[in-house]
Write a structure and sequence with these properties.
Blueprint (H helix, E strand, L loop, with lengths): L5 E7 L3 H15 L3 E7 L5 H8 L4 E5 L5 H11 L4 E5 L3 E2 L4 H10 L5 E11 L4 E3 L8 H13 L8 E3 L6 E5 H6 L12 H11 L3 E12 L10 H31 L11
Parallel strand pairs: 1-2, 1-4, 2-3, 6-10
Antiparallel strand pairs: 4-9, 5-10, 6-7, 6-9, 8-10
Helix pairs in contact: 1-2, 7-8
Length: 268
């Protein structure tokens, strides 16, 4: 694996413990490659701890919380590598195989925009597979069902899907730029389905990789804010996701109905 072929990008907000664990995982399993952390004005010790323990990381401090989508776009503008590994700070990595598997998938074709592993959640009692809309296709759902019954994937080859769960996404930067990046009108939530429907509209492909996985301790940073604010965020999230799905599918259907062709994928 070419050590300079991807950059790891992490957006943080009150994520001190989580991001330190993730950066340690990257050091152990990725061993090389650039790492960029965009901090959205954390009020905890995220910034000083990253500076102290990982001085090699490129740390960008926003003076205010500009939102997830805008921070991700900000980070992508700083990346000079062909591919970007977009990570939530509450992801844990346990194998170097993850990186080579994702790179191998993107090498299949210039049409492949994103590859992502399975995501498990680790609760008090046992580790189990997160159910997300990644499993909305029959083949992908077969993977989820096989974990329920057999506790391992019955399918190991990459599966083409419409949506992937954010948290750990290996993205072709040129494809991300081509479709217009993340939609910054969504402060938090909504940018994920919007992005994948733009990939679909432009003819790109996205793949779920059943033979590699990460653990995702979801939404840890949300627990640092008052419950009333959390409920407000969740309500807005539902509105954003609904808007992104309706807008995205409407554009796709309009293109098909009018036989309009989206801008072609770039050639080698």
């Amino acid at each position: 694996m070419n050590p300079t072929s991807f950059t790891s990008l992490i957006v943080t907000y009150n994520s001190a413990t989580e991001v330190l664990n993730l950066l340690n995982d990257l050091g152990v399993y990725a061993t090389t490659g650039d790492i960029i952390v965009i901090d959205n004005a954390s009020k905890d010790e995220t910034v000083p701890l990253v500076q102290k323990h990982f001085p090699q990381v490129r740390l960008i401090r926003n003076s205010t919380n500009v939102g997830y989508a805008r921070a991700v776009n900000q980070g992508f503008d700083l990346c000079t590598t062909e591919n970007v590994l977009l990570l939530n700070p509450d992801i844990r990595i346990a194998s170097s195989r993850l990186f080579s598997a994702m790179e191998e998938c993107l090498r299949l074709s210039r049409q492949v925009a994103v590859a992502a592993p399975l995501q498990f959640k680790d609760d008090e009692y046992h580790r189990k597979l997160n159910f997300t809309w990644s499993y909305s296709t029959p083949m992908a759902f077969r993977v989820y069902a096989s974990f329920l019954v057999h506790h391992h994937a019955m399918v190991t080859k990459p599966i083409r899907v419409t949506f992937l769960n954010a948290g750990c996404l290996f993205i072709r930067k040129s494809a991300f730029d081509m479709v217009g990046k993340l939609n910054e009108k969504y402060f938090m939530y909504g940018e994920e389905p919007d992005l994948f429907l733009k990939f679909k509209r432009y003819g790109y492909e996205c793949y779920l990789l059943p033979d590699v996985d990460v653990t995702h301790y979801r939404e840890r940073s949300l627990r640092t804010i008052p419950i009333s604010q959390r409920l407000q965020i969740k309500f807005q999230a539902a509105l954003n996701i609904t808007d992104a799905l309706l807008t995205g599918w409407t554009r796709i259907l309009f293109d098909r109905f009018t036989a309009r062709k989206s801008k072609p994928i770039e050639e080698n």
